[in-house]
Amino acid sequence: MIRYLLPLGIFAGLVLIFIYGLQHDPRLVPSPLIDKPAPTFNLPTLHSPGINIHLDDLKGKVSLLNVWASWCVACREEHPLLVKTSQTNALNLYGLNYKDTREDALRWLNKLGNPYIESAFDQAGTIGIDYGVYGVPETFVLDKNGIIRYKHIGPLNKQDIDDIILPLVKQLEQPAS
Amino acid sequence: MIPELGHFALILALAMAIIQTIFPIAGAANGNQAWMSLARPVARLQFVFISISFAVLIYLFLTNDFSVAYVAQNSNSLLPAIYRFSAVWGAHEGSLLLWAVILSLWTTAVTFYSKRLPNFFLARVIGVMGAVSVGFLLFMLLTSNPFERLFPVPADGSDLNPLLQDPGLIIHPPMLYMGYVGFSVAFGFAIAALLGGNLDSSWARWSRPWTLLAWAFLTIGIALGSWWAYYELGWGGWWFWDPVENASFMPWLIGTALIHSFAATEKRDVFKNWTILLAICAFALSLLGTFLVRSGVLTSVHAFATDPERGVFILVLLGFFVGGSLLLYALRAPSTVKGGQFKLISRETFLLFNSILFLVAMLTVLLGTLYPLIAEALGMGKLSVGAPYFNAVFIPIMTPVALLIGIGAIVRWKQDDYIRVGKQLRYLFLASLVVGGILGITFFDNHLFRTIAGIVAALWVILTSLSALMSRLKHRQNKLVALQTIPRGFYGMTLAHIGFAVTIIGITITSQHSVDVHQRMAPGDVVAFADYQFSLEALRPTIGPNFKATEAVVKVTKNGKHVTDLHSQKRIYTVRNMPMTEAGIDSSLMRDIYVSLGEPLDDNAWSIRLYHKPFVRWIWLGAIFMALGGLLAATDRRYRLKVESNKTAPVEGGAVSLKS
User: For the whole model, what pTM was predicted?
Assistant: First the structure.
């Protein structure tokens, strides 16, 4: 009898694994960079090629670094939300324009609105590699000292911003006790 | 109004499916003839309603009815009509409907080709298949209704995923589903046999042709998927060990084990429990595939729409059908009568080895596919399992399979003499070794060991298959008449085994000897590569119905002689703003030349990839042989005979051979 129950037992084990799997989003990959200093960069800005933007420009305030590209479909999905959020001035939102062309990226912002204080132009994608970007869009939350505190992969939705990003930013803005 | 008609037809189909489940099964249990006789007409009626529903969805796509959410999300008025048609199964809701339609098609086919089946047995088969249908129709109506309306109505649809806008993808899903849903017939027969307790060889004879047919479709479906990935993804690979691919490959592996195990059960009345278990397993893996693809528990490059809530529903379905049938198996299987006896050196032994190897192969694929999930559940962190694992474990399992095919084809049923077998095989083995070695050394100059090993394995399979055919003709006076009297099943087996060998050759040579270069090219540039000269003649913009593209024209010459002009495009599908690569391919039996346009670089130059892939067509050619072999075997004369039924089929009337 036991011999004949074996297949059922194996199947039950599989089901348990699936129940576990269903409760966990495989896309949530913890970044090894969390709580580490953000990789430094010094890149031309998207709007004026002559002027550079440095990681130090982001320090002093809690900021968000949003990796985007004009060729990225999912970026288009989160973009209206970023534009809307930027109008409330609740966030210091910077962009990292990733593996794009200047012309396409500017046309994109002109058409859809520019939520970013400034976008760094990472045409070769090397800074993206330093940040471990593997899917665009990705969003990093950096504290006042430029330490990465949070990473979101994929398009942000309203819930992500209201429930996670905004409270975190508020908390990080408190002076350290 | 029209979409509601489709929705209503779907509800009626569900009602039919419920009747089709309850009455025939209850009737078979109580011996109520009237209830049992409902099976045929109700199953056919279900097919009528579900076909209406499917036809309505096709109509909505063809007429661009964007008031229906599913149409709006997966079509566009600029989408060519043929892709508006295939967009019907381009995403979750429609592919589920296709699943249900095909299930109903198989059920209806069973109602027509079942004259030899006892009433109570047919009633149970149709009832079990009806239960599966109930599950899927409920799933669709409760979580994934393709006829849901959208308000406000968008001006235009957001287009079909450009990856799916391809001729190969028009027939790939239907073929694949014909395969994996087809295993539901074998499942229905297995459950019916367990319910009734009549596990004899006639059960195997009834369900074997259906299984062969489903297996043949699945073979073609997988080959089409591989061929599509090869030319459409633009990097020349033909198999990626992606979870979605594995989801269709696992039922194939078990299906292969199953058709071989059926052979032994039908001919020699052995391995009955094993065959039942494989039949349950094949269908379980079909459901599992649907679960893995649709629930989002695993990430995949194919990344179709996923939704955890739907995942829960499919998991419940999976738990009910697979858990329920395995429980039934545990209760009923121990009491089944022991079958015929056989000795160690016999075809039975080799068929058993074969099915065990295929089961092990399936388990390694399953382990690799689920390992990221298991590792995470055990707190070992996130990880992914890639091609290196699969190649490392899969090839060592398939090597003995090739060896066993050769022996299995020669060895006799029940008992054979190893001296006789050795005599017949040793020259064949020597011949494969010598010819394979010579071929390898003559035509290739690197990776010799693996290349020769692959060719030797393939030759061994081919030579032993032909030798088995020859020995059937040996003592016959008139060879021509003898050829005609050999059953189709035998030809089918021979053809499928030769197909397997052809695929081995394709895989071996392609993976060992493909070369590629990644080159910066501007118009006028010439690159010499793999005995050919590639010159970029022109880069020009072109426009398609729903995309803009840059097209590269590459002239290929060999020793100054013109070979072909290849056209590769980099398309941007305008609605989704998604880039796609169309590779330019010149194919022949001996090699493919493959050009794919990469990224634009500065001053009118592009990065271009050139591939030379010898024997890659053999991979799919072999699959076609295997499928044709399955088809031949499924149409063997003994499955079509109606007269001899009285001799073998159990007497009608229920509890004849009940043994519980």
Answer: 0.81
